[in-house]
Design a protein that fits this description.
Blueprint: E1 2-6, H1 13-24, E2 28-30, H2 37-44, H3 51-70, E3 74-77, H4 83-89, E4 97-103, H5 106-114, H6 126-132, E5 140-143, H7 148-160, E6 166-169, H8 173-184, E7 189-192, H9 203-210, E8 219-220, H10 223-228, E9 235-238, H11 244-253, E10 262-265, H12 271-283, E11 287-294, H13 296-302, E12 305-310, H14 312-325, H15 344-372, H16 378-392, H17 395-403, E13 407-408, E14 411-412, H18 426-437, H19 442-454, H20 457-466, H21 481-510, H22 516-522, H23 532-543, H24 553-576, H25 581-593, H26 600-611
Parallel strand pairs: 1-3, 1-4, 2-3, 4-5, 6-7, 6-9, 7-8, 9-10, 10-11
Antiparallel strand pairs: 11-12, 13-14
Helix pairs in contact: 1-7, 8-13, 12-15, 15-18, 15-19, 15-21, 16-17, 18-19, 19-25, 21-24, 21-25, 22-23
Protein name: 6-phosphogluconate dehydrogenase, decarboxylating
Organism: Antarcticibacterium flavum
GO molecular function: ATP binding; gluconokinase activity; NADP binding; phosphogluconate dehydrogenase (decarboxylating) activity
């Protein structure tokens, strides 16, 4: 094969030709070196060549092309501006000659030539070349207004005909890990990250260089080249910050996309944004998938839990890649499955994070209680968590036990960490969704609010000084540890039940037809809330797919066994002056959920009194409403 890089002077034919010859291990030749002396002198004097001047030169090159091809191939840099010149050089079969047309705007090339020294071609001749140029309708057309490495990579993808199957845009922690994960499974991945001076410099280039010994990542910081490098129809995975950034990135991609191209949003986007984007892109013929991804950096690299929702057509095409990189359940199946239409995937990921908030806060509460009510060392608390985790097999308990053993110098690192947490959005979003759907959400809301109150550190310190509570200084060693574990398990079960009840409500409201058993299976590995209990939920929700978890006979019996301990620990914590909001919220929810008679009759009477909102009666059919004139007559 002979590769001819053509174009006006200054487009980089020689530079790119040398790079290409090195990559292909072929000799490089510059057509300028074959000009007769009189041609060189003419151009050096600032005079353009005419067809008569080029005749002998083109004859020589045509002979050389035949010779080079017979000897295994070559790379040639040759302007070949007119079609008749190119036809004269076509002295070997078309399939053995690859034309690569390099181009850019006149102003760009003029600036390049103005900065070049030691070459006989004068910048003043550039205009005549553009006037002479007849742009070919065949071959590879490469815009050279980008880094040389990107130009070479774009040519190589075309030459090798091995275009990447998927493009990953956004090389943050998760993006990098997912790219490595895909590459390790044999997926050909192109990576893109914007280049911003002094902010994001050579992110994609450096990432590709870091893993060059193991994988070949075509890298780009030019969006057009990135999209062009992908095999059609294109699959592009976005790993960027949720919110307006996703819309900005999509708007940037659209000019380069074609019908049937697919965008996958792998970030923590709000489910309503995902539904909106899917509808907007469908009008343009672009497929869209909102894929919730859980597992953190380690999960992303080794196998996360993936929750894709949106276009079924999109999943049928891209699902194989997502399933390939996902974690595996006990049976070896991918912890990834099509969840449903619209924004269902991101709703499920949002709810996953909501349950995660509750579980994290619950563990933190017991750590705090042991540390400051019982005066246990971090090492002893870690040992308790390890013991509990023999039954729970909870990832969050496991990492909490590890955290408590980490030392820095002579002390424990946990004691040096500021007690002020933040919530990135998904916890609050799930609480808002519960309010919209009218679903009680006690534990998860309590966890979100606990982070909010922790954030006002200075204010809390002032209040602690003003309201100094002597009872909080008391230490107890009397509590039965089986009661503490039972209280923890009780609150955890209730937290999961609350989370899944919101999933069930959303499924009915939006007609998503969510499979809670399958969602539980997806969450058994790779994700943050994986546990032995999640394994149980696969079977439980298969048996009672439409019922609240707390109504299942196995759970009923378990919570009956735990409820005494749950109340006891909650009461002791209050008496000792220690906040355990999720433990208490779980108990409040449980008492409310299991109360046949609530206080809401008084609420309804109050509403009717001041607002004539009406009420239903216990002695009349449901659906009949009544109003009473409550104020006594004088």
């Amino acid at each position: 094969m002979v590769y001819i890089l053509s174009g006006v002077s200054g487009v980089g034919k020689t530079t790119i030709g040398l790079l290409l010859s090195a990559r292909l291990d072929l000799p490089f030749y510059d057509a300028d070196d074959f000009h007769p002396r009189e041609n060189v002198e003419k151009m050096a004097a600032g005079n353009p060549l005419n067809d008569e001047d080029r005749a002998t030169w083109l004859e020589t090159l045509a002979e050389k092309i035949q010779e080079w091809n017979a000897n295994g191939g070559a790379v040639l840099a040759c302007s070949a501006l007119k079609e008749k010149y190119r036809r004269q050089l076509q002295t070997i079969p078309e399939k053995e000659l690859q034309w690569i047309f390099l181009h850019s705007d006149y102003e760009v090339i003029l600036q390049r030539l103005s900065n070049r020294s030691g070459h006989y071609f004068k910048p003043s001749l550039l205009q005549s070349q553009y006037e002479t140029l007849e742009t070919p309708e065949y071959g590879l057309h490469i815009n050279v207004d980008k880094p040389e490495e990107n130009i070479l990579e774009e040519i190589m993808q075309e030459v090798k005909k091995e275009k990447p199957e998927i493009g990953l845009l956004g090389l943050g922690v998760m993006g990098k890990s997912l790219a490595v994960n895909m590459a390790s499974k044999g997926v050909h991945v192109a990576v893109f990250n914007r280049h911003v001076e002094k902010l994001e410099v050579d992110i994609a280039k450096n990432f590709a260089a870091e893993y060059a010994g193991d994988f070949s990542f075509p890298w780009f910081d030019d969006l057009s080249s990135f999209v062009k490098s992908l095999s059609r129809p294109r699959n592009i995975l976005l790993m960027v910050n949720a919110g307006k950034t996703v819309d900005i990135v999509i708007d940037g991609l659209l000019p380069f996309l074609e019908e049937e191209d697919l965008i996958i949003d792998g970030g923590n986007s709000h489910y309503k944004d995902t539904s909106r984007r899917e509808k907007e892109l469908l009008k343009k013929g672009i497929l869209f998938l909102g894929a919730g991804i859980s597992g953190g950096e380690e999960g992303a690299k080794k196998g996360p839990s993936i929750m894709p929702g949106g276009s079924k057509k999109a999943y049928d095409r891209a699902g194989k890649y997502l399933e390939m990189i996902a974690a595996r359940d006990r049976k070896g199946d991918a912890c990834c499955a099509y969840t449903g239409p619209e924004g269902s995937g991101h709703f499920i990921k949002m709810l996953h994070n909501g349950i995660e908030y509750g579980e994290m806060q619950l563990i933190a509460e017991f750590y705090h209680y042991f540390r400051f009510a019982y005066n246990f060392t971090p090492e002893k608390i870690s040992a308790i968590f390890v013991d509990w985790n023999k039954e729970m097999r909870s990832y969050l308990l496991e990492i909490s036990a590890d955290i408590l053993l980490k030392k820095e110098e002579e002390g424990f690192l946990i004691d040096k960490i500021l007690d002020a947490a933040k919530q990135k959005g998904t916890g609050g979003w799930s609480t808002n969704a519960a309010l919209e759907l009218g679903v009680p959400f006690d534990t998860i809301t309590a966890a979100v609010m606990a982070r909010n109150i922790s954030a006002i550190k200075e204010e809390r310190e002032k209040a602690a000084w003003l309201y100094h509570n002597p009872s909080a200084e008391k230490k107890t060693q009397q509590q039965n540890f089986s009661d503490l574990f039972s209280a923890y398990k009780s609150a955890s079960i209730i937290n999961h039940a609350i989370g899944f009840s919101l999933l069930s409500a959303a499924s009915k409201e939006y007609d998503w037809n969510l499979n809670l058993s399958e969602i539980s299976r997806i969450w058994t590995n790779g994700c943050i809330i994986r546990s032995a209990f999640m394994e149980e939920l696969i079977k439980i929700f298969r048996e009672v797919p439409d019922e609240n978890l707390l109504l299942h006979p196995k759970i009923v019996q378990r919570l009956k066994d735990y409820r005494g301990a749950h109340r006891l620990v909650a009461r002791e914590a209050i008496e000792m002056g220690f906040p355990m909001p999720v433990l208490l919220a779980a108990q409040i929810y449980f008492l409310g959920y299991t109360s046949g008679q609530s206080s809401a009759n008084m609420i309804q009477a109050q509403r009717d009194y001041f607002g004539a909102h009406t009420y239903e009666r216990t002695d009349k059919p449901r659906g009949d409403f009544f109003h009473t004139e409550w104020k006594p007559e004088l």
